[in-house]
Design a protein that fits this description.
By secondary structure, this protein is α/β, with parallel strands linked by helices. It contains 21 helices and 10 strands. Helices cover about 65% and strands about 10% of the residues. A hairpin with a 2-residue loop joins strand 9 (about 540-545) and strand 10.
Length: about 575
């Protein structure tokens, strides 16, 4: 793990070396003051060498000015380096997240992932800057100051040095506790970020149902867990810091008493004794910095462990011999497909031995109760998930033998739950084909019947739609997502409740556009409104993970005991009932 951490220093090797040299010079200049103090007390003042006193004083001032500039360099460019390393890690992490299979996102909340991209990487950035400085420079300073103290008085220095093992013992005994408390703290921060992200995303639902108290209660639970985790974290470091601080304070007592005895016995001069008291801080300060750095080190290393956890996850990748196919346009066949999202003993299959085919250029509609497996079928075709048993083929080629990029390039998806990105209308439509011309974008908007609305706005296509299209109605969102598919112009279409969010007038307009788009393309339609799929070449009734009926609309309606017929009658009655209510209200 250390080797991987160090690898992020490589692009900034020159800056790192400069930072270390500057830190070294800062440490070195700290040694000058006690040296001058010793000469002052033992030579210049007793022998009245005033000229040398002034020269040394001015020299010390110049050195301190240089030291201030060096400290500026270390602080600014050291953090500068840490931020760039953090940026590189964030880029690697984001790239890895984009490559992970959808299963990862099923199991991990957005806020938790965000915590790893922000909080954890900030801690790593601080470690990247302060780590080498503290570990290398403090160690060097301890050695230099120890050697210098030996030149003043060997016995007094060795007495101080003998206290260091106690600091080491305390550090080792508390290390495991601090590691675990740091991990719990990171998990608690991720959990509270996840809850906040969920609550803010659903704020309109919360207000609509007047459930602010419930959201507050949920937040307080995660907030309390966060407080407990942080209390555990701070308790460990408080014990550590107070214990180590007591020992370093003990050093001063030892110096005062032992030094006084040596002075009384004539084993040390008053000048050397005074210099030793001043110089002992050179030895204690880097020790204290290392002690305080322990917390930062633990935070950073725990953050890096969480970073590596994601970096080491297996990515979504093709088989080694998978082929690149430019144009995929042919028969689709599901052969004895079985699939479950979770593979534990209690989890039943979402799809159980499903077989059907869609002829080239034809339309197959999937209907049936919610949770039956219709949307799962749509997820398997573009390889969002991989089948457990059986296979899916296009023109006889197993989709596992086709590269995901070329497969997905040829599939257009319009879902019931529309996701739009923050940005403009133009940017969201362009997402369907990033190298499209403005003319093509405009044409796609016209086909989706969203063009007139866009042009009625003051900024037209440059109008911001807000986070997830919050400024748009449900129908406008759906039409915008359909425009993206028009622009993509795929050979295979998946329409998963594509017109569910539209009013009756808009639905007719979009249905006409979709009918035009479907011509010559292989299409799978998931529909709740059965009136929209009457003209499908084949209708499959999916229930409990199985295809229980298949046929055309007319053949299924004529069937004596047909689930589809019952579903259709139920919707027909519901439509008539709604129409009667409207007539009565008039």
């Amino acid at each position: 793990m250390l080797k991987r951490f160090i690898s992020y220093y490589k692009p900034y090797k020159k800056l790192f070396i400069e930072d270390m040299i500057a830190s070294f010079l800062v440490s070195l200049t700290a040694m000058i003051y006690p040296v001058i103090t010793r000469n002052m007390l033992n030579d210049f003042i007793p022998n009245k060498k005033y000229k040398l006193m002034i020269i040394f004083g001015i020299s010390l001032l110049v050195i301190y000015i240089i030291r201030g500039l060096l400290k500026y360099f270390v602080q600014y460019y050291g953090h500068y380096m840490g931020v760039y390393m953090q940026s590189d890690m964030r880029k690697d992490l984001f790239k890895k997240i984009e490559q992970l299979p959808l299963k990862y996102f099923d199991d991990n909340e957005t806020g938790s992932i965000m915590s790893r991209l922000t909080n954890d990487l900030f801690d790593i950035s601080e470690l990247a800057h302060h780590g080498p400085e503290n570990l290398i420079m403090c160690t060097l300073m301890i050695i230099l100051s120890f050697v210098y103290l030996l030149t003043i008085n060997v016995k007094l220095t060795l007495i101080i040095f003998c206290s260091i093992p106690f600091l080491v013992i305390i550090s080792l005994r508390l290390r495991n506790y601090m590691v675990e408390s740091s991990r719990k703290s990171k998990r608690a921060i991720a959990a509270i970020n996840a809850d906040i992200s969920s609550s803010i995303s659903g704020i309109r639902v919360t207000k609509a149902f007047n459930n602010s108290d419930i959201e507050l209660e949920k937040f307080e639970k995660s907030n309390d867990s966060f407080v407990e985790a942080r209390k555990m974290h701070f308790r460990g470091f408080s014990i550590f810091n107070s214990a180590t601080s007591f020992i370093t304070d003990l050093f001063n007592v030892i110096v005062l008493i032992a030094g006084g005895i040596f002075l009384f016995n004539g084993e040390i001069t008053f000048g050397d004794y005074s210099t030793f008291i001043v110089s002992v801080t050179l030895f204690l300060d880097p020790i204290n910095r290392l002690i305080q750095f322990t917390e930062q080190f633990q935070e950073g290393i725990t953050g890096f462990e969480r970073f590596v956890e994601i970096i080491d996850l297996p990515i979504e990748e093709d088989k080694k011999d998978a082929k690149e196919i430019k144009k995929i346009n042919g028969d689709i066949e599901f052969k004895n497909v079985t699939f479950a999202y979770d593979h534990n003993e209690e989890e039943k299959e979402i799809l159980d031995n499903v077989s059907f085919n869609v002829k080239k250029g034809k339309t197959v509609a999937l209907v049936g109760p919610s949770g039956g497996g219709k949307t799962t079928i749509c997820h398997l075709l573009p390889k969002f998930y991989h089948v457990d048993e059986g296979e899916i083929t296009i023109n006889g080629i197993n989709i596992e033998d086709i590269k995901m990029s070329s497969l997905r390039e040829n599939i257009g998806i319009v879902q019931q739950d529309v996701f739009l990105f923050s940005g403009t209308f133009y940017e969201n439509i362009l997402y369907g084909k990033t190298d499209a011309t403005k003319k093509e974008v405009i044409e796609a908007a016209k086909k989706a019947n969203i063009y007139d609305y866009i042009m009625s706005l003051p900024k037209g296509f440059d109008t911001e739609i807000g986070e997830r299209g919050i400024r748009l109605s449900g129908g406008q969102k759906q039409r915008l997502s359909i425009a993206r598919v028009f622009l993509k112009n795929p050979s295979i279409l998946i329409l998963d409740e594509a017109t569910s969010a539209l009013d009756n007038v808009t639905e007719v307009l979009i249905q006409e556009a979709l009918n035009t788009l479907k011509k010559g393309r292989t299409t799978i339609v998931v529909a709740h409104r059965l009136s929209t799929i009457k003209n499908a070449n084949e209708i499959l009734v999916v229930s409990n993970g199985k295809i229980v009926e298949k046929g055309t609309h007319n053949s299924l309606i004529r069937k004596p005991k047909s689930i589809y017929k019952e579903l259709y009658k139920s919707q027909f009655k519901e439509s008539n009932s709604n129409l009667d209510k409207k007539m009565m209200m008039r």
